[in-house]
Design a protein that fits this description.
Number of strands: 0
Radius of gyration: 23 Å
CATH superfamily of the largest domain: MetI-like
Order of helices and strands: HHHHHHHHHHHHH
Largest sheet: none
Structural class: mainly alpha
Number of domains: 2
Helix content: over 70%
Shape: globular
Number of helices: 13
CATH topology of the largest domain: MetI-like fold
Strand content: under 5%
């Protein structure tokens, strides 16, 4: 609650909880990032540029960003209907389906990678069938997109579900009563409040996909210049004791993720201002 006449905060413990929060955020987030940047500083500007613009690194960064973007878009396309069904309808097996959505959260990423490789590999059932039609999934960029879509779906669904559940159905019924078609109800009444949540789910799935390693390393094949992702390049540099080079590639991924999430946040704020009529 807000304060009384003097503006005093009525709920106790604000100073202590703020201090604990700032301490935890600094120790667990800010300090590791600062150490990462300082490790990169051991390279001069020219060395940093040469490291991150090397052909192998550029190919890995490009592949990681493009596959993460494609997987995030796929998760939005399928995650919105999934969240809608789980939030609005009751049907046999709903609880089981709702639990299955969280499976990528619960599974170790290595287990997910092995399962997907077994499924879409040349010896797997679906993989063997697809190869008969000239479609190869495992050890190609397509397999990377599949793995990232697998681990990113819960981010979209779980971000959307509480927002959908909070929507007032009476507004939708009123719009339908006034003659709005189902399409008009969806695009003019339902979709606008969902836009910030959709963008949040997209950014979370994208950020997770950019840095994903365990579920991708098995199905990608790790072929340099073809199916090697940026986290694998980082691991390779670490194994070669090139800590500064690994930190440089990691900083690029960090910057890209921060830029994307900042842009999404700005779009969310703009969408909120638009809905409230603020310019």
């Amino acid at each position: 609650m807000a304060g009384g006449p003097k503006g005093r905060i009525l709920l106790p413990g604000f100073g202590m909880t703020l201090g604990v929060t700032v301490f935890y955020v600094c120790v667990m987030i800010l300090i590791p990032f600062a150490v990462l940047v300082l490790k990169t500083a051991s390279l001069n500007l020219h060395g940093f540029y040469e490291t991150v613009t090397a052909p192998r690194v550029m190919a890995a960064l490009r592949l990681s960003l493009l596959t993460a973007l494609m997987a995030a878009c796929i998760n939005v396309v399928f995650g919105v209907p999934a969240a809608w069904v789980l939030s609005r309808y009751s049907f046999p097996g709903k609880r089981l389906l709702d639990a299955v959505v969280d499976l990528p959260f619960a599974l170790p990423t290595a287990v997910a990678g092995i399962a997907l490789t077994s499924m879409f590999g040349p010896a797997g059932g679906p993989g063997a069938i697809l190869e008969r039609f000239g479609v190869r999934v495992a050890f190609t960029p397509v397999g990377i997109v599949v793995a990232l879509a697998f681990i990113g779906l819960p981010f979209v669904v779980r971000t959307l579900q509480p927002v959908i559940e909070s929507l007032d159905r009476r507004v939708e019924e009123a719009a339908a009563t006034l003659g709005a078609s189902p399409a008009q109800v969806f695009f003019r009444v339902i979709l606008p409040p969902l836009v910030p949540a959709v963008l949040s789910g997209f950014s979370l799935a994208f950020a997770r996909g950019v840095g994903e390693y365990g579920s991708v390393v098995f199905i990608s094949g790790n072929m340099p210049m073809r199916t090697e992702i940026a986290p694998v390049v980082i691991m390779t540099k670490l194994q070669q004791f090139d800590y500064a080079g690994a930190a440089a590639v990691a900083v690029v991924l960090l910057i890209v993720s921060l830029v994307v999430m900042s842009l999404v946040r700005l779009i969310e704020l703009r969408a909120g201002f638009w809905r409230t009529g603020v310019r």
